[in-house]
Amino acid sequence: MTSPTPLRRGAAALAAAGLTAGALLLATPASAAPTTTGFDAACWGKFKSLLDNTHKSISTGVTVEAPASVVTGETFTYRLQPDTMTLARNGENLRIRSSVSRIKFDYEIPAGAQFVSATVVPGTGVNLAGSAPTVTRVAENGSPSATGTILRLSGNNETVGNGPATNDGAEGGIVVNAGSGDTSYRLPAIEVTAVAGPAGSVVTPKLRTTGAAANYKADENFFTSLVREKDPVFSVSYWSATRCVPKNGTDPGSGVPLNAGAGPLATINVTAPPDATTTTAVAAPATANTGAAVDLTATVSPAPAGGTVQFKDGDDNIGGPVALSGATATLSHTFTAAGAHAITAVYSGAPGFAPSTSAPRSVEVSVATVDTTTVLTTPTHAKTGVSVGLAATVAPAPNGGTVQFLDGGAPIGAPVTVAGGVATLAHTFDSAGNHSITASFSGAPGSAPSTAAAKTITVSVPAPNETATSTTLDAPTPATQNQAVTLTATVAPSQAGGTVQFFDGVTAIGAPVPVANGTATLSHAFGAVGAHGITAVYSGAAGFLGSTSDAHVVNVTAVGTPGGGSGSAGSIFGS
Q1: What burial class does residue 368 get, using C-beta atoms within 10 Å of its C-beta: 0-12 exposed, 13-18 middle, 19+ buried?
Q2: Which positions carry the signal peptide feature in this UniProt record (predicted)?
Q3: Rounded distance between C-alpha atoms, residue 494 and residue 361, angstroms
Q4: Comparing C-alpha atoms, which of 84, 80, 61, 62 is closest to residue 6?
Q5: Phi, psi of 471 (to 5 degrees)
Q6: What is the pLDDT of residues 2-58, one digit of tens each?
Q7: Cα distances (angstroms) measured from residue 534 to each of 182, 475, 506, 551, 553
């Protein structure tokens, strides 16, 4: 029997007249989450050859393990386990109960799924004798039927009524023999295998309560049995055919409704199969020239049945959607603007296939280029754990492009945008030794790539006796857009040496500035109006640790606009 790992739910077990429900725990798989639906059952017992009959109400339940949801077409299982019951020793009119037999326990086959099979779960029954428990598919009249709507747990379908092998005056089927006192027993669980129906269906395992089974005193009631009582003096046996229905009270009339025991014991939702996950990859040349056509190609995996691909340059569509041919779509495209273009391909999806978007493919579009040179500026010494500034100057100054700093060929951080011919990076070394630093310019429209000559930075571990430093920043406020101001960093002790890297937020301003007599100054013109958080990062030097100033806010205004104030906003970089 194929069984997915289910999230299982609760069901219920029932007893007969003169029986009380027990509380034996049900052993279930560790992965299951069983729950129990408890309810009252109204039971009627009729003694054969006597005028006596009994009306009793018992509390009982059924435990169910079932998946919360299944996919249409999926084979799944659910388990139904009646609760523990008790055969009370004391019967009616001082008689002694000796057995209960011919037990049947009926479930309805739920809609929303195609029934495959049902089996008794070995080892889940307790204190049972007589015929081995079986589960049989039966029709409304209790006869075995391949198209029946009832699953019957019994011993060879031997019952007190509603079946081909009925008898209300002799033991048969499943038997529970009484001990010297009250006797607990438990009917076994059954495991039902089914195939999930259409998406949107709901599968609700239930007790048998439709038709005549909903009536009090009916042979069709979901739980029936035969109780045997003996006269303690004359050893005469009396047989009580007992029938139970999920209703409240004793001797309920026809107007008393069914209770929760007639409701769903579990709810299994049938969902549609998820669309197959797709991945889209875009192929494009790494470089292109304006005015020259290139091919953009998208490949969708697995190959879907239809759909289109929309190529995009950043957020802008390139032409219209292109229909897939097999798993690919190709578009010829001519770039009109130089620069970096992030090309993506967006697959629309198709029946059974989910949409997907490719990772961007960078195409560097160029015009006629000139050679460039890249010069690297670094400190000669640094300390582990102390930030230092790295700067690369590209000449002639390009219109854009990035610089990738490298340590021994390994990238340091992400590429840094070149602004005004300069790219700077604050970097903290985490290992001592000689580090060979280079800077590689990516190229830009009209500017060829170039790589700086390597420089060696000797990195050492700070000694315990190295002197701590402090850095303070002096910057004017307000400042006027595009008008140069002086930024001054003061390092104490003044004999420290080293360099200072000024920062606007997390963006380096120019290249590191050497410290002379405890100060470093930089002339800078702010290009953007607004508040700028400026800091100064001292690199440290032999015998001195690095440090960072508090942030200083410079309010930059347009020409002719009244200025703002300044203030301390805390460190942006750790010292």
Answers
A1: exposed
A2: 1-32
A3: 50
A4: 80
A5: -125, 130
A6: 333 333 322 222 333 333 333 232 333 333 478 999 999 999 999 987 778 899 999
A7: 87, 8, 9, 5, 6
E-assigned strand segments in 48-138? 53-65, 69-71, 75-82, 84-87, 96-108, 113-120, 129-130, 134-138
Same domain, 20 and 116: yes
Phi (first) and psi of residue 92, to 5 degrees: -85, 145
Quick check: is 341 in a domain? yes
76 in a domain, yes or no?
yes
Instruction: Report how far residue 166's alpha carbon sits from residue 514's, in angstroms, rounded to the nearest whole number.
Output: 106
Q: What is the pLDDT of residue 129?
A: 97
Given a cut of 90, whether residue 468 has pLDDT beyond it is no
Task: Identify the bridge partners of residue 186 per DSSP, sorted by sequence position.
Answer: 84, 126
Range 158-169 average pLDDT: 96
Segments forming the whole domain that contains residue 515: 470-557
Query: What are φ and ψ of residue 52, in 5° steps?
Result: -65, 145
Count how many domains the chain has: 4
Selection from 182, 257, 242 nearest residue 55 by Cα: 242
Q: Quick one: 112 and 143 in the same domain?
A: yes
Q: Is 572 domain-assigned?
A: no
Is residue 70 within 8 A of residue 193, CB to CB? The reply is no
Mean pLDDT of 453-466: 87
Asked if 97 and 18 count as a contact pair (C-beta separation under 8 A), the reply is: yes
Residue 570: inside a domain: no
Q: Is residue 149 over pLDDT 90?
A: yes
For residue 391, what is the domain's CATH number? 2.60.40.10
Cis omega before residue 462 (within 30°)?
Answer: no
Q: Identify whether residues 451 and 487 lie together within a single domain.
A: no
Name the percent of the chain lying above pLDDT 90. Answer: 67
Mapped onto helix, strand or coil, the DSSP state of residue 495 is helix
* Same-domain status, 395 and 492: no
Structure tokens at 538: 């001292």
93 and 228 in a single domain? The answer is yes
